[in-house]
C-alpha cells in the first residue's frame, strides 16, 4: 500500500507542473501588452516601464516561470487589481464557503444516491425502480442554475409561511452575526500559515458557530446551505444512484450471494454486508469523479443564491478582468481537485487489494 | 398449470431468416430500446422546431415589440389572458420581446452549439489521439501528458479560464468548451489504435505498402467509431449544459441572442414575479440534454453489449 501511495505521488508531480504552466500561460496568452491589459486606462509608457520592472516582465520567460512557481509554492498569489489587496486574503474569505457547499452537496448526493440505487437494485423492475431511474435520467440533464432558481421559487415563495420555508439567499439571516474565532479562542498576532489557517476556519460559518457554541447561528447557517446543496448535488446524486444500481445488480447476481441466501442469512444482511461492500468500488470511483461536477456546480450555484464563495468572486473577477484573482483561484481549485482525486485513488486501492499490486 | 393455457410452440424456421448487416442489426436493436426511442422522439421534436424556426416563430426573436409598454407585467396567454392584453402564448420578456419566438430560436441555437463544439473537439481529439497512438514513444508521451493536464481541471473551471483569455462571446465560449472536451476523444481514439495496430490484418496491410494515413482512416478508425459515437452523443449533452452555464454567467452568448442560458440569466431576477420566463428556457435546456443523454445511453447499450452486461442479468 505504501509503495502504491509513493508511485501515485510521483506521478502527481508532472500534473502539478502542468497546472502551473497552464495558469502561468493564462496571463501571457491574453492578447496585448500585459501592462496595458492590467493597468487599462492608467497605463502610460513610463508607468509601463515601472510596471514591467516591478513584476519582472522584462526577464527571460523561463526565469519568470520559475519565479511564478516559487511564489505559488510559498502561497504568494500577488494582489487583486480591483480590490488592491492580497489575493490570499480574498481566498481565505471565500474558500471556506465553497468547501462547505461542496461538502454539503456531497453528503446529500452520496447518502440519498446510494440509498436510492440500492433500493432500485433490490426491487428491480418495480415501480420504485422505474421512477428512480426516470428521475435519475432527468436529474442528470438538469442545468444546475435552473434547478437552483426553481428550488428558490418553490421553497422561498410558494412555501412561504409554512414550516417548509427555506431562505433563498445569503449565508445567514440578516441581523445574525458570528464571533470571529480569534476572539473566541483569544488568539492575537497570528502570522504566516497559522493566520491563514485560522482565517480559513473562522470564515466557515458552520465551524465557527460550532466552536463558539452559538447554536442558533449554527442552525441558521445549515438552513441556508440546504437549497444550494440540493441544487449542486442533484446531478451527482443521479449518477451515483445509477452506478449503485448497476453495480449492486452485478454483485447480487453472483454465486456467493445465492450461497449466503441459501444458508439462511436474512435478506437485509446479505444486501448490506455481503453485496454492498463488494459493489462499493465502482461507486467510490464514480463519487470521486463527481468532484469536478460539484466544484463547477458550486461556482454556478453561488451566483444564484448570492453566496460569499469562490464562484461569485471568480465570475466577478473574470468580468472585471482581475487576472491575478482568476489565476490564483484557478490554481487553488485545480489543486483541490487533484488532491481529492488522489484521495479517491487511495481509497479504492484500500477497498480493492488487487489495484495495489498491478 | 392447465395445459390449455400454454401457448402452442411455434418454431421459427431458421433458414428463412434473412442475413442482416451489423448496422441493420444495431439499428433494429436501437429501435427496440426504450430510452433510445424516447430520446429520438424528443430530439426529432427539437430538430423539427430548429429547422422550421423561421416559420414557427410568430415574431422576430431579437427585436422588441413596438406596441408593448415596458412596464406591463407579462401576461401568459397559455395560462389565460384578459382580452384587452396583448396575446402572446408564453408572454413577453423583460425587454418586450415575444418569448415563444425566443424559445423557438433558442432550440436552433442549442442544437447548433452542441453539434459544433463536439465536432470540433472530435476532429482535434481524434487527430491527437491517432498521432499519439500510432507513433508511440516520446510524441505519445507529450500528447497524452498534455491531455492529463487538461483533465486536472474541473471542466467548467478550465472553460472559464479560457474564456478569460479569449474574451467573452459565444464563439469563444464554444471554443473553450471544445478544448476542455478534447482529451476524452483523444483517449478513446488512442486506446482503439493501441488495441488494433498490432493485429494481423493491419500488419498485412502495412506490408503491402499502405501509408499510415490510409491505415488509420480505413483500418483503425472504423473500430474506434463505436465508442466515439456514444461519447459524442453524451458529449453534445454536456456541451449544451456547459455553454448554457457560460451564457448564464454572462460570459457566453451576448444579448440579444436568443440563447436559453442567456435568457435564463437575463430573467433570473424576475423568478419571483414571472417564473415562466425562468422556467421555460431551463426546461428547454433540460429537454435537449435529456434527449441526447437517453439516445447516448441507448446507443451504448446497443453498440457495445459488454458495457450493458450489468443491466442484462
Element layout with pairings:
The complex is a heterodimer of chains A (358) and B (313).
Chain A: H1 2-29, H2 34-39, H3 45-54, H4 61-73, H5 87-122, H6 127-140, H7 144-158, H8 181-184, H9 192-202, H10 205-212, H11 215-252, H12 255-262, H13 267-289, H14 291-304, H15 310-319, H16 323-351, H17 353-356
Chain B: H1 22-30, H2 34-51, H3 53-56, H4 99-135, H5 137-151, H6 155-166, H7 170-196, H8 200-208, H9 212-248, H10 260-267, H11 275-303, H12 309-312
Helix pairs in contact in B: 1-11, 2-4, 2-11, 4-5, 4-7, 4-9, 4-11, 5-7, 6-7, 7-9, 8-9, 9-10, 9-11, 10-11
Explain how this protein is built.
The complex is a heterodimer of chains A (358) and B (313). Chain A is an all-alpha fold. Helices cover 76% and strands 0% of the residues of chain A. Chain A is globular. The relative contact order of chain A is 0.14. The model of chain A has no long low-confidence stretch (mean pLDDT 83). With 313 residues, chain B is mainly alpha-helical. Chain B is built from twelve helices and no strands. Chain B starts with 21 loop residues before the first helix and ends with a helix. The chains are: A mainly alpha (358), B mainly alpha (313). At the A-B interface, α1, α6, α7, α11 and α14 of A face α5, α6, α9, α10 and α11 of B.
pLDDT average of chain A, as an integer? 83
Can you say what the CATH homologous superfamily of the largest domain in chain A is? MetI-like
Helix content of chain A: over 70%
Structural class of chain A: mainly alpha
Number of structural units classed as domains of chain A: 2
The fraction of residues in strands of chain A falls at under 5%
Helix-strand pattern of chain A, N to C? HHHHHHHHHHHHHHHHH
| DSSP strand content of chain B | under 5%
Q: What is the helical fraction of chain B, as a range of percent?
A: 55-70%
Tally of DSSP β-strands of chain A: 0
**Arithmetic mean of pLDDT of chain B:** 82
Looking at the structure, the CATH topology of the largest domain in chain A is: MetI-like fold
Q: Helix count of chain A, per DSSP? A: 17
Q: What radius of gyration of chain B results from the CA coordinates?
A: 25 Å
At CATH's second level, what is the architecture of the largest domain in chain A? Orthogonal Bundle
Distance between the termini of chain B: 27 Å
Task: Using the alpha-carbon principal axes, give the shape of chain A.
Answer: globular
Strand segment count of chain B: 0
Amino acid at each position: 500500500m505504501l509503495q502504491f501511495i509513493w508511485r501515485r505521488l510521483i506521478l502527481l508531480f508532472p500534473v502539478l507542473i502542468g497546472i502551473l504552466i497552464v495558469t502561468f500561460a493564462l496571463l501571457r496568452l491574453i492578447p496585448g501588452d500585459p501592462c496595458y491589459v492590467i493597468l487599462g486606462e492608467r497605463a502610460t509608457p513610463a508607468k509601463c516601464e515601472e510596471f514591467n520592472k516591478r513584476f519582472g516582465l522584462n526577464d527571460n520567460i523561463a526565469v519568470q516561470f520559475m519565479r511564478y512557481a516559487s511564489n505559488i509554492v510559498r502561497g504568494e498569489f500577488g494582489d487583486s487589481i480591483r480590490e488592491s489587496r492580497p489575493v490570499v486574503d480574498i481566498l481565505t474569505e471565500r474558500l471556506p464557503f465553497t468547501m462547505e457547499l461542496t461538502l454539503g452537496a456531497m453528503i446529500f448526493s452520496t447518502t440519498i444516491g446510494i440509498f436510492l440505487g440500492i433500493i432500485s437494485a433490490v426491487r428491480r423492475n418495480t415501480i420504485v425502480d422505474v421512477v428512480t431511474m426516470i428521475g435519475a435520467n432527468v436529474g442528470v440533464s438538469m442545468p444546475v442554475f435552473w434547478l437552483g432558481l426553481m428550488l428558490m421559487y418553490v421553497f422561498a415563495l410558494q412555501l412561504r409561511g409554512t414550516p417548509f420555508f427555506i431562505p433563498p439567499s445569503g449565508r445567514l439571516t440578516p441581523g445574525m452575526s458570528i464571533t470571529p474565532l480569534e476572539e473566541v479562542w483569544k488568539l492575537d498576532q497570528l502570522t504566516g500559515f497559522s493566520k491563514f489557517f485560522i482565517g480559513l476556519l473562522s470564515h466557515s460559518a458552520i465551524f465557527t458557530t460550532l466552536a463558539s457554541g452559538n447554536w442558533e447561528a449554527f442552525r441558521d447557517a445549515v438552513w441556508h446551505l440546504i437549497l444550494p446543496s440540493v441544487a449542486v448535488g442533484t446531478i451527482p446524486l443521479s449518477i451515483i444512484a445509477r452506478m449503485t444500481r448497476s453495480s449492486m445488480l452485478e454483485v447480487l447476481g453472483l454465486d456467493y450471494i445465492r450461497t449466503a441466501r441459501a444458508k439462511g442469512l436474512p435478506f437485509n444482511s446479505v444486501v448490506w454486508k455481503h453485496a454492498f461492500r463488494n459493489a462499493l468500488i465502482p461507486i467510490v470511483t464514480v463519487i470521486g469523479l463527481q468532484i469536478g461536477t460539484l466544484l463547477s456546480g458550486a461556482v454556478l450555484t453561488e451566483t444564484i443564491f448570492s453566496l460569499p464563495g469562490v464562484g461569485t468572486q471568480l465570475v466577478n473577477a473574470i468580468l472585471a478582468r482581475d487576472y491575478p484573482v482568476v489565476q490564483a483561484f484557478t490554481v487553488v481549485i485545480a489543486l483541490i481537485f487533484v488532491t481529492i482525486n488522489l484521495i479517491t485513488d487511495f481509497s479504492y486501492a484500500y477497498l480493492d487489494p488487487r489495484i495495489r499490486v498491478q | 398449470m392447465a395445459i390449455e393455457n400454454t401457448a402452442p410452440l411455434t418454431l421459427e424456421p431458421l433458414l428463412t431468416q434473412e442475413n442482416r448487416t451489423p448496422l441493420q442489426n444495431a439499428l433494429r436493436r436501437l429501435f427496440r430500446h426504450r430510452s433510445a426511442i424516447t430520446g429520438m422522439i424528443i430530439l426529432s421534436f427539437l430538430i423539427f422546431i430548429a429547422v422550421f424556426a423561421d416559420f414557427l416563430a410568430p415574431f422576430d426573436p431579437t427585436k422588441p415589440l413596438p406596441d408593448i409598454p415596458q412596464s406591463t407585467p407579462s401576461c401568459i396567454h397559455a395560462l389565460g389572458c384578459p382580452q384587452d392584453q396583448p396575446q402572446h402564448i408564453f408572454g413577453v420578456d423583460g425587454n418586450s420581446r415575444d418569448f415563444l419566438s425566443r424559445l423557438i430560436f433558442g432550440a436552433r441555437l442549442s442544437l447548433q452549439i452542441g453539434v459544433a463544439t463536439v465536432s470540433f473537439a472530435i476532429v482535434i481529439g481524434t487527430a491527437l489521439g491517432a498521432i499519439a497512438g500510432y507513433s508511440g514513444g516520446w510524441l505519445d508521451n507529450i500528447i497524452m501528458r498534455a491531455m492529463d493536464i487538461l483533465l486536472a481541471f474541473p471542466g467548467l473551471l478550465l472553460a472559464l479560464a479560457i474564456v478569460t483569455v479569449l474574451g467573452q462571446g459565444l464563439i469563444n465560449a464554444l471554443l473553450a468548451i471544445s478544448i476542455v472536451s478534447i482529451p476524452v476523444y483523444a483517449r478513446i481514439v488512442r486506446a482503439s489504435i493501441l488495441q488494433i495496430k498490432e493485429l494481423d490484418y493491419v500488419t498485412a496491410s502495412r506490408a503491402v505498402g499502405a501509408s499510415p494515413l490510409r491505415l488509420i482512416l480505413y483500418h483503425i478508425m472504423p473500430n474506434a467509431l463505436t465508442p466515439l459515437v456514444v461519447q459524442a452523443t453524451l458529449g453534445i449533452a454536456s456541451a449544451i449544459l456547459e455553454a448554457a452555464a457560460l451564457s448564464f454567467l454572462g460570459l457566453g452568448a451576448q444579448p440579444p441572442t436568443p440563447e436559453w442560458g442567456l435568457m435564463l440569466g437575463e430573467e433570473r431576477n424576475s423568478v419571483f414575479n414571472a417564473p415562466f420566463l425562468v422556467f421555460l428556457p431551463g426546461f428547454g435546456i433540460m429537454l435537449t440534454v435529456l434527449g441526447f443523454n437517453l439516445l447516448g445511453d441507448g446507443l451504448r447499450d446497443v453498440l457495445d453489449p459488454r458495457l450493458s452486461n450489468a443491466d442484462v442479468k
